[in-house]
Specification:
The protein is of the alpha/beta class. The chain has 13 helices and 14 strands. It has two domains: 235 residues, Rossmann fold, CATH 3.40.50.720; 79 residues, TATA-Binding Protein (2-Layer Sandwich). Strands 3-2-1-4-5-6-7-8 form an eight-stranded mixed β-sheet, sandwiched between helices. A six-stranded antiparallel β-sheet has the order 9-10-14-13-12-11, with helices on one face. Helix 4 packs across helix 11. The longest helix has 19 residues. The chain is globular.
Length: 349
């Protein structure tokens, strides 16, 4: 990383410094800040590029996946060469960011964020941006945010709709205030089952980064403390006031301090099946899956067959068997990270 001289800073960030809400003092705060982006997909790539251009001092990129051709429609930092080389997403983002702003220290972590590594990966981080594609990771981020008092910005985008909410421990409601428990496996749409318009990912990411800049420059009174729900196809924007469950004694995190996901109480476990090129995925929630509904969502993506005990889904890059109790088998691989990625892509949480 190049040294950050005064002349470099003034010239590169001059238009941002001219914005009075940032100014030279705010810019210095950004340069001294450390931000973690969890997930380098449609949301994370936009977040990373904007923050890099804004002059964040250190970016930690966390992602377990690799670049594929289908990513190029909406994951804006990647190109065809990245997909052809099957580069890990975190590595590809780092390479592109280094060409955009060599003053920013970019750290790529090609790992699956989980309860075992979350605390070490978030050490020294000032703000976390959500670019993930599953609720289990978001619940984990909420726990680590509460424990370490790190603000984080939730974001989600699928189809033409998006959600975002800024969470500051001790100041705003937390994620468990709006979602008490994990949804049933296969009950929520994903980009691979419902599709996605690229603009919605860019809009949600831009809103998330704006909130992060407010936090990092000390303008926390300006944050949006409501849950924003938008649909750019239906031209609708809604801001929902969320009551903190800490006051009503309902929230297990911000009232009771129960960090169940950080302790691994609800983590998804994976096991390589002996003698078979398959990985079993088991969700500790143990909730029954609506197999007909899941089959309806998957039928346009591949071949679906099911009975009252299990569902079998086959497509060009995956074969997944989902059992009634939420247990699943991903066939054709013994790689646990790949199996989790395929499961998250097609089944959801």
């Amino acid at each position: 990383m190049k040294s950050k001289s005064v002349s470099d800073t003034l010239e590169r960030y001059s238009r941002q410094i001219l914005f009075s809400e940032v100014g030279s003092q705010g810019q210095q705060h950004l340069i001294e800040s450390r931000v973690a982006i969890v997930g380098c997909g449609a949301l994370g790539t936009v977040q990373a590029e904007i923050l890099c251009r804004a002059g964040i001092g250190h970016l930690t990129l966390i992602d377990r996946d690799f670049v594929e051709k289908s990513n190029l429609q909406r994951q804006t930092l990647f190109n065809e060469q990245d997909a052809e080389n099957s580069l890990p997403k975190a590595i590809a983002v780092k390479q592109h960011l280094n060409k955009i702003n060599s003053l920013v220290d970019v750290e790529a972590q090609v790992v699956d964020l989980n309860y075992l590594n979350a605390e070490s990966l978030m050490e020294g981080i000032d703000c976390i941006l959500d670019g993930t594609d599953n609720f289990e990771t978001r619940f984990l981020l909420n726990d680590i945010s509460y424990k370490k008092r790190i603000p984080w910005i939730y974001g989600a985008a699928v189809g033409s709709s998006g959600l975002t909410m800024t969470i500051i421990p001790g100041q705003t409601p937390c994620f468990r205030c709006i979602m008490e428990s994990l949804p049933l496996p296969g009950s929520t749409p994903t980009c691979d089952t419902a599709g996605i318009l690229s603009p919605i990912a860019s809009i949600v990411s831009s809103l998330q980064v704006t909130e992060a800049i407010k936090i990092l420059t000390g303008k926390t009174t300006q944050i949006n403390s409501k849950l924003l729900c938008l649909d750019i196809w239906k031209n609708s924007w809604q801001w929902l006031e969320i009551a903190s469950s800490s006051k009503s004694h309902d929230c297990p995190v911000c009232h009771s301090g129960k960090l169940e996901f950080l302790k691994g109480n609800h983590s998804t476990s994976t096991t390589t099946l002996c003698g078979r090129d398959s990985v079993q995925i088991f969700q500790s929630e143990g909730k029954k899956v609506n197999l007909p509904e899941l089959g309806r969502r998957l039928q346009l993506l591949g071949t679906v067959s099911f009975n009252r005990f299990l569902l079998r889904f086959k497509c060009k890059d995956a074969e997944i068997i989902v059992f009634l109790d939420g247990r699943s088998i991903v066939k054709g691989t013994s790689n646990h990270q790949l199996a989790r990625s395929l499961y998250s892509r097609y089944i959801g949480n």
